[in-house]
Write a structure and sequence with these properties.
Layout: E1 3-8, E2 14-18, H1 28-38, E3 46-50, H2 56-63, E4 68-72, H3 76-92, E5 98-102, H4 106-112, E6 127-132, H5 141-150, E7 154-165, E8 177-184, E9 187-193
């Protein structure tokens, strides 16, 4: 497995990053902005990371007090790197956290519903915060939003943060509440809550 260690968390800790052009890690500037937007909401939250890549966003959330993290990544090599990164952060924490990395295509996982867990077969709680960062050229936003609702993945006051290209006009789905939008150069964030 080839990795390069160029990613750093906001606290300075290094993370492994997949080698090659298959992933596009969220920049440090955007990661820090997301954490600042969320503030105390991260404390004790259940965090769902869709198209997680190296897991950097989940690692940031764990460092700031997320209690449970589920990261979903379809590429096997990238999912292994994600697992390594997230587990290394989780084991360094003084408080207990629950982490799970699933190597699967995101839509097929979401279709199974929130109660499905490959790792434990236990009931999984709904999620407070979802970070969704698909490849910028993908067209899966609408179906992911739909499956998050159908699969009962979200709490009533959940926040979904979708990272996308700032050149792509991504609007909130019907009946969802638009909580805001931020633009950081070529990256944009759409913040929405379920109906």
């Amino acid at each position: 497995m080839q990795v390069k260690s160029q990613l750093r968390l906001s606290g300075g800790r290094k993370l492994h990053s997949p080698k090659g052009v298959g992933t596009r890690p969220t920049t440090a500037k955007v990661r820090e902005a997301v954490m600042n937007i969320l503030g105390q909401k991260i404390q004790g939250c259940n965090w769902l990371d869709l198209c997680s890549g190296s897991g950097a966003m989940s690692c940031e959330a764990l460092q700031r007090g997320a209690r449970r993290v589920l990261a979903v990544e379809k590429d096997k090599q990238t999912a292994r790197i994600c697992q390594t990164n997230i587990c290394s952060i989780a084991t360094a924490l003084s408080e207990e956290s629950f982490v799970e990395v699933i190597c699967q295509e995101v839509i097929s996982l979401l279709r199974k519903g929130c109660q499905h867990s490959q790792a434990t077969r236990e009931q999984r709680p709904k999620f407070d915060i979802v970070y969704f960062d698909p490849p910028y050229e993908s067209k899966i936003h609408s179906i992911v939003f739909e499956k998050l609702l159908e699969g009962n993945w979200l709490k009533q006051d959940s926040l979904v943060i979708c990272e996308h290209s700032s050149s792509f006009n991504l609007g909130a789905p019907d009946k969802w509440t638009r909580k805001g939008e931020r633009i950081y150069g070529r990256t944009a964030l759409l913040l929405i809550s379920p109906p």
